[in-house]
Amino acid sequence: MSKSSTSGLTSTERQFNHLIQDGISSYKRAIEAKTVKNTVKLAQSCIDKLEKAVQLTKIIGNEERNPYIYEYITLSSALIGNTYITNKDLLNAIEQFQSALENNKKTLGNEETNIRELYFLSKLMNIAELQENWRIADKYAIRMYPIAKKLEDSEKAMDYFTEIKDVFIKSKNLDMINNSYTQLLKICKKSKGFEKLKLSIAEIYSDYANYLEVVLNKKKKAKSYFRQAKDLFSEISLSEKAQEMSTRIEKLQ
User: Is the pTM of this model over 0.85?
Assistant: First the structure.
């Protein structure tokens, strides 16, 4: 293959660079697109170009770039999937998020990979919820559970464990309800010093206390968590919520 006298790159390397640049440009334009049609068209263009770029990495010996390229491919599939959800085209949305899950396995395998996987699974779980298919929703929630345990980001872990816990309640999966609360309480314990998480922790304690009282009839333990929630609500000046916790505690006396 002949080298360009100006760039020193082979024609295949130049083609690869153009595909990467055009693919990423298409993705950025897809994010800004104003219509469903344009969003899907541009995001699909990104996927098509970057998949061609992946094929070229084998030829030019640049396969270490593939995990980074696949990040854009997965994000483009998710963008199309979200567009289909907005348009109530759930079957095509499912197909896109399943594709995103498969391609996400080819990325770096780091914290961001886990966060993306949780996001894609949560979207598939949400679609099952919309269809009131609790068996499928439960299946996706179970898949999310071990991935959420790996997260270093406490705030995101709280959000995802709360989301899957709510699904387990609707699917009546008692073991996984308890497991989800266990993980939430662990995160709360190690995150108490973070000011920005105080509201989330207070809400989790309040929710868990209600579960202990209403479902498990463990009133003494419920009272303890209502008190902890009350203290946190007071610390962040949510007096009405603190008073609500006080009222719940009084009823348990």
Answer: yes
